[in-house]
Design brief:
Blueprint: H1 2-12, E1 20-24, H2 29-40, H3 42-45, E2 48-55, H4 62-75, E3 80-84, H5 91-109, E4 113-115, H6 120-132, E5 146-149, E6 152-155, H7 183-198, H8 202-223, H9 232-236, H10 240-251, H11 261-273, E7 277-282, E8 285-289, E9 294-298, E10 310-312, E11 317-320, E12 323-329, E13 335-337, E14 343-346, E15 353-355, E16 360-362, H12 363-369, H13 374-378, E17 381-385, E18 388-394, E19 397-400, E20 411-417
Parallel strand pairs: 1-2, 1-4, 2-3, 4-6
Antiparallel strand pairs: 5-6, 7-8, 8-9, 10-14, 11-12, 12-20, 13-20, 14-17, 15-16, 17-18, 18-19
Helix pairs in contact: 6-7, 6-8
Length: 421
């Protein structure tokens, strides 16, 4: 197997960009095979190897396994890095702990690749697990052979080989792998064996399902690469089926944003039915849509629109939002003011209305009529004097209250946009 594998690795150039390679080694048959293989062929592959091991402290054999790996590393003059799990143990917390440790070692010791011993059985189990949990078709593609990780890549060279294909090298058996407490163990030891009684090639079928899913979505991406997904006109011109997959692809740009199917449908319906919208998805993530485009963005709870109100007195200067306001004499340049009372600068409120002389208009209707994008609406600045709205500054446009014929100009308000440096 090793001779065949090294030729495949060279052909696929897994390590072409890497010199220092960190191997995740638990002590089981999978990772011990990986360690032996990469040690034997390290010169042929042009790599230097190191061992990363996490002692989970969950079994009495844990220390024995750690000591064996330390002795092996010392005998073969291979660097070894060991960490000890802490916290409440679960499959997820243990995995998170391991990969955080691997990232730390890669960054500190300048390794550019992490190699793990995931094999074809792991691939089939992962796809089956995702199927059980109701994952979308696109996520049934399973584990990738190469993926970005830390400051480099995560490489899994054994993915095309089943566990039975691996040589029987010295290794440790982990009795906890037989426990039915964990879902993956139940899948491995109970569910898949039962289904293999119906179809002995069930695991191969799962892997093929994953491969076809990956090819399907790659083909879709190739065919739609010229569509600007966030352009509303282009997006809405597609069939509903294409819109669905385009939105799924777009959401892949936000890996830490996990939306439910219900949330996905709400986002999709918002895009289809509303010309201007701001929809809170979860946490700091918002869908912001105007007439021309949409985007998903993180908006911190503390933003400019939550600034406190500010008062500006005559002959004073105030910065508010992205603008500088100066209350000057009537001989200067600026917006005409018909009182020397302080001007209140604030954000829009429900029911705000501005007087245009022959008619008045609610700001909500003004923004709709003027096709002001939703993000700009949120950033609008309202100027109020003597209890009346005298101007609205939105999208770099200023809408002014019409003075009455009895009003006498007393001063002016000079507005300047603050340039980012």
């Amino acid at each position: 197997m090793y001779d065949k594998l090294v030729k495949e690795i060279q052909k696929k150039a897994y390590f072409a960009k890497h010199k220092k390679v960190l191997i995740a080694v638990s002590g089981g048959v999978d990772s011990m095979n990986l360690l032996h293989f990469l040690y034997i062929y390290r010169k042929k592959l042009g790599i230097e190897i190191g061992i990363a091991h996490v002692n989970h402290k969950q079994r009495v054999e844990s220390d024995t396994e750690e000591n064996y790996l330390r002795d092996w590393a010392n005998e073969h003059q291979v660097p070894i890095y060991v960490s000890y799990f802490s916290g409440n143990f679960s499959e997820k917390t243990a995995r998170d702990f391991r990969y955080h440790f691997f990232k730390q070692i890669m960054n500190e010791q300048n390794y550019t690749a992490l190699v793990t011993a995931h094999h074809a059985d792991d691939q089939a189990e992962t796809i089956f697990m995702r199927l059980l949990r109701g994952s979308r078709l696109r996520h049934l593609s399973g584990i990738q052979a190469v993926s970005p990780f830390a400051n480099g890549e995560l490489i899994r060279p054994f993915l095309d080989y089943f566990k039975k294909d691996l040589p029987d090298v010295f290794h440790f058996e982990d009795d906890s792998n037989q426990s039915l407490e964990f879902l993956r163990n139940r899948i491995r030891n109970r569910y898949i064996p039962i289904l293999e009684e119906e179809n002995p090639k069930f695991k191969q079928g799962l892997r093929q399902l994953g491969e076809e899913s990956e090819q399907l979505f790659q083909a879709f991406q190739d065919l739609t690469q010229n569509i600007d997904v966030t352009n509303c006109s282009q997006f809405l011109a597609q069939s509903q089926a294409v819109q669905n997959i385009l939105l799924q692809n777009y959401l892949e740009n936000y890996p830490d944003l996990q939306v439910t199917r219900g949330q996905f449908e709400e986002i999709l319906q918002t895009l289809r039915n509303k010309s201007n919208a701001k929809y809170h998805i979860k946490s700091d993530y918002w869908l912001v849509k105007d007439y021309d485009a949409f985007q998903i963005k993180k908006i911190s709870p503390k933003t400019d629109r939550e600034l406190d109100r500010k008062m500006i007195d005559y002959s004073s200067i105030v910065n508010y939002g992205q603008y500088r306001f100066q209350f000057v004499s009537k001989d200067k340049e600026g917006i005409a003011l018909y009182s020397l009372s302080p001007v209140l600068l604030r954000r829009r409120q429900e029911g705000d209305r501005i007087d245009f002389g022959k008619f008045s208009k609610k700001l909500r209707r003004l923004f709709i009529d003027e096709k002001i994008p939703s993000q700009e609406r949120a950033d609008a600045i309202i100027g109020e004097q003597d209890g009346k709205i005298i101007f609205v500054l939105v999208a770099d446009k200023t809408y002014l209250r019409k003075p009455s014929k009895h009003d006498i100009m007393e001063g002016k308000l000079y507005i300047e946009k603050i340039r980012n440096r």
